């Protein structure tokens, strides 16, 4: 089945001309995987016992484009990328997005460029703290989207990672530069985020301001 694949990396625009993914990085392929260490020692259920999950780097391939120089630079600098997003779209006029991968807390672990004939090819490896995947079902009747199936893993804490966790981490990131007066004007927002605020992490939200 033919598909188009695009990756979005903050501050590193590509040359994709697709209407929905303009300035994303068009890629030719990708791979990542999971290894679950097991022990021959039987568990209480009778089967082999498992250990800590090991996930490989997320690797993608692409042709030389406007993103190449900044990808190399970010790898050299060990630049921390808040989020990297991959989407797969079915080839055709509607370009239905049927698979999405979101990586958080990302570093470009390896960057390789090579050429022998034709356009130079690049291989980029991303090391990440969390991964979230979403598969979108397609209705047989009209080919439109018909619901999502999700799965994810938090490599930092070695546990499942859901969109609820993704939304919470996004809120925490945004709170770092939020003025307390916003919550004074928006009581609903204050109630929503109250449980996320911790004084050591957000000292400017832990005290009231007298000035207006």
Computed over alpha carbons, the radius of gyration is: 21 Å
Give the strand tally: 12
Distance between the termini: 59 Å
Number of helices: 4
Beta-strand proportion: 35-45%
**CATH topology label of the largest domain:** Pnp Oxidase, Chain A
CATH architecture of the largest domain: Roll
Brief sketch in words of this structure:
The protein is of the alpha+beta class and 212 residues long. The protein has four helices and twelve strands; from the N terminus they run E-E-E-E-E-E-H-E-E-E-E-E-E-H-H-H.
Describe this structure in words.
- This protein has 212 residues and is an alpha+beta fold.
- It folds into two domains: 3-35 and 51-162, Roll (Pnp Oxidase, Chain A), CATH 2.30.110; 176-212, no CATH class.
- Helix content is 17%, strand content 44%.
- The protein has helices at 68-77, 163-175, 180-185, 187-193, and strands at residues 3-9, 25-27, 29-31, 34-42, 48-55, 58-63, 80-90, 97-114, 121-127, 130-138, 145-154, 159-160.
- The strands form two sheets. Strands 1, 2, 3, 6, 7, 8, 9, 10, 11 and 12 form a ten-stranded antiparallel sheet that branches. The protein has a two-stranded antiparallel sheet with strand order 4-5.
- The longest helix has 13 residues, at 163-175.
- The radius of gyration is 21 Å and the shape is globular.
- It starts with a strand and ends in a 19-residue tail after the last helix.
- The model is unreliable at 195-206 (pLDDT under 50).
Task: List its traits.
212 residues, alpha+beta, Pnp Oxidase, Chain A, ten-stranded antiparallel beta sheet, two-stranded antiparallel ribbon, 4 helices, globular
